[in-house]
Amino acid sequence: MAPPPPPPAEQLRSRRPQPKPPTTKPSSINNPSSSPPPPTRKRISTLDILRVLLGIFLLSSTLSYFVTNESFFWNHTFSWAQPARVRTWLRGDILLSDDELLRYNGTDRDLPIYLALNGTVYDVSASPHIYGPGGSYHFFAGRDATRAFVTGCFAEDLTADLRGVEEMYVPLDMDEMPEMGEGIGEEVRRKVRREWKLRREKVWREGREKVKTTVAGWRKTFDGGKGGKYWRVGRVVREEGWEGKQGRRELCQKAKEGRPKTSKEAVD
After folding, report:
1. For FRET with 124, which of 9, 65, 114, 170 sits at 20 to 30 Å CA-CA?
2. What number of other Cβ atoms are within 10 A of residue 42's Cβ?
3. 51 or 70, higher pLDDT
4. From the CB of residue 178, how many other CB atoms can be counted at a distance below 10 Å?
């Protein structure tokens, strides 16, 4: 049996898939009724907000300073923002001799009031009623009176020399070695002397530590203490060995009378 004849060419062409005509999007030109796309809105970034806030802050601070002539924050107290303190930070430490420091004792109204503690100079101008002329602690102004801060002897100890001041914490029974009877052997005597010497060195060492603790407590008062109204402005410059040129000072009477009588009292 013979195979069927092939289909005509016209039938083959009609069976092939026909390509789809391209779809065209109606344009606003060809279609007047269509509206243009809405414009995109610019978003406000966090950086834009910060710029606006910073501008308001700077404008307010500048206006406050020109109106009050002393404060960046309309007389609200922020220690870190005081104009005098900002100027100190920008200027850096000032270096003064003891003689130069005397000029800042509050008698000159055009100068700030300074005092020094253990060689560090602090601005205490915020309390002229205390450190200025007529104030209860005016004798501290314009000088380094660290020894008086420790002993409490304001008349005698207005100096920075702390040599021997630890004696005020040393018990009276450590001044002299206890007497030993004649019946005690030499070996026992040596042992007693050695133990007494070690104990004496210990109480003197503890006395020096107490002096450091006392000075550190006063430093906290002036270095950002009292609500931040005092602050460091510089240092006192002295030549090497300045203490020895003044001669060794004796312990003032008030400090002598306050010494503990026995080692037990010193511990208590």
Report:
1. 65
2. 7
3. 51
4. 8
Alpha-carbon distance 66 to 61, whole Å?
9
What does the pLDDT look like over 123-166, one tens digit per residue?
Answer: 999 899 999 999 999 999 999 999 999 999 999 999 999 999 99
The pair of structure tokens assigned to 39 is: 């414009």
Does this model's pTM top 0.85?
Answer: no
Give the containing element (helix H, strand E) for 114.
strand 114-117
Range 142-157 burial, b when 16+ CB lie within 10 A, else e? bbbbbbbbbbebeebb
Give the containing element (helix H, strand E) for 236: strand 231-236
Ramachandran angles phi, psi of 263, nearest 5°: -65, -30
pLDDT per residue as tens digits for the range 222-265? 987 656 788 899 999 999 888 877 778 899 999 999 999 887 65
- By the 10 Å C-beta count (0-12 exposed, 13-18 middle, 19+ buried), 112 is classed as middle
DSSP 192-211: HHHHHHHHHHHHHHHHHHHH
Question: For 134, how many CA atoms within 13 A lie in the half-sphere containing its CB?
Answer: 2
Start-end of H helices in 102-161: 128-131, 146-151
